[in-house]
């Protein structure tokens, strides 16, 4: 593969220290308002908003700039219904069929989650995120991608942040197994379902658990 051309860094804007502090604090407050929501409104969200958020996610750092993600955005009510139906089959097996260890069920109990997933039909958009293990070449060969899980995870986090910044709410959903998504959405074998990101406006009846996040001393270690 030929070496990439390099150009001067012209997009970086350094902030004075006090402005940097204020910007970091403002962003922290914005992100502290982000909550995972399970009750969605069916109000439409412009496709353009979703596209811009996806393009923001597509700026994520990734292994060798392979960009090993594929976002399949579903707004069709029939497809959303079929995704819900298939997902709930897996969820019933998880919650009631013995697939989930009791320790995991106990950990989820305080959140009140169960096998019923109406949000998969309620929300205007489902963004099904696939991780691409390799690319197919025009000649029928394969080109391996690197750090796929890490790259797709970073892009997904940036997508959640972009959607929150745009005034929407989200829910990450990971039915297991998720191979049915390849079949329903016509995706090739080199794409592995990563998660379903539900996006839209919160429902008028939306409730969220009264939980807190860990303080800095519990999530970070500074070595100075």
Question: What is the element layout, followed by pairings?
Answer:
Blueprint: H1 17-32, H2 47-57, E1 69-74, H3 77-95, H4 102-109, H5 119-122, E2 125-132, E3 134-136, E4 142-144, H6 148-165, E5 169-173, H7 180-185, E6 191-200, H8 216-219
Antiparallel strand pairs: 1-2, 2-6, 3-4, 5-6
Helix pairs in contact: 2-6
Notable traits:
6 strands; two-stranded antiparallel sheet; 8 helices; NADH Oxidase
Describe the protein in words.
A four-stranded antiparallel beta sheet has the order 1-2-6-5. It is globular and about 55 Å long. With 224 residues, the chain is an alpha+beta fold. 25% of the residues are buried. Strand 3 and strand 4 form a beta hairpin. The termini are far apart. Helix 2 (47-57) crosses helix 6 (148-165). It has eight helices and six strands. It has a single domain, classed as NADH Oxidase (3-Layer(aba) Sandwich).
**Overall geometric form:** globular
Whole-angstrom Rg = 20 Å
What strand line-up does the widest sheet have? 1-2-6-5
Percentage beta strand: 15-25%
Straight-line N-to-C gap: 40 Å
**pLDDT < 50 runs, ≥5 residues:** none
CATH architecture label name: 3-Layer(aba) Sandwich
How many β-strands, per DSSP? Answer: 6
* Count of alpha and pi helical runs: 8
Largest sheet: 4 strands, antiparallel
What structural class do you assign from the helix and strand content? Answer: alpha+beta
Structure summarized in a few sentences:
The protein is of the alpha+beta class. The chain has 8 helices and 6 strands. A hairpin with a 5-residue loop joins strand 3 (134-136) and strand 4.
């Amino acid at each position: 593969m030929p070496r990439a051309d390099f150009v001067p860094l012209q997009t970086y804007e350094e902030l004075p220290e006090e402005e940097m502090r204020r910007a970091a604090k403002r962003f922290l407050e914005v992100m502290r308002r982000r909550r995972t929501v399970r009750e969605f409104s069916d109000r439409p969200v412009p496709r353009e908003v979703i596209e811009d958020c996806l393009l923001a996610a597509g700026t994520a750092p990734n292994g060798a700039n392979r960009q090993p993600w594929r976002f399949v955005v579903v707004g069709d009510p029939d497809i959303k219904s079929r995704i819900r139906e298939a997902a709930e089959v897996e969820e019933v097996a998880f919650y009631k069929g013995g697939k989930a260890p009791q320790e995991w069920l106990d950990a989820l109990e305080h959140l009140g989650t169960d096998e019923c997933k109406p949000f998969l039909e309620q929300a205007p958009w489902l963004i099904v995120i696939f991780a691409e293990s390799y690319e197919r070449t025009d000649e029928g060969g394969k080109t391996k991608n690197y750090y796929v899980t890490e790259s797709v995870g970073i892009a997904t986090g940036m997508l959640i942040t972009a959607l929150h910044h745009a005034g929407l709410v989200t829910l990450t959903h990971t039915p297991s197994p998720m191979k049915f998504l390849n079949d329903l959405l016509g995706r090739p074998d080199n794409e592995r379902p990563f998660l379903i990101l539900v996006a839209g406006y919160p429902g008028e009846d939306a409730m969220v658990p009264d939980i807190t996040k860990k303080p800095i001393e519990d999530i970070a270690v500074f070595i100075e």
